[in-house]
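Now read the record:
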Amino acid sequence: MFLSRGASVAKAGQRRYTIRMRPFSYRNCAALFLLAPALFFISCATSSERISADLSPAELIQRAQEASDHNRYITALHYYQALLERNPYTIDLVCTGEYEIAFIHYKQRKYELARSELSALLERYNTPDAELLPQQFKRLATIVLNSISEKEQRGSPLRKKQNSEK
């Protein structure tokens, strides 16, 4: 119920009281427009789950895969990013995290981003220490890169449909 300035309201058996509303102010309006974006960004930043510091690398990977299986890609990316941040010197885990992040971007159809991440991962295999790296990610990255190239050569289904309608 909207009441005008100084309107009185009384319910049965209750005392009468007055609701007074403040007049419109451009200062209030300006404050609202300045505050709204800040609240939006704060709410976006705090919407992600807090990742427990005591999770092992295997638990981080498991939770990331579960999130990815349920199409919760942002959550999965947070877990893989935590894996990379907490294990920067364990090359097996670094390769796992980098490949999985790139693969999520591939599943999201962010092909350019996935291509650059997969190419960066494959660059690790062009170093003298390449024999120490897990070989499955080299093969998987190559397969996904080939898939991206094939999709680009074929064009997206939407483009084909638009071209056939012309």
Remarks:
- The two ends are 54 Å apart (CA to CA).
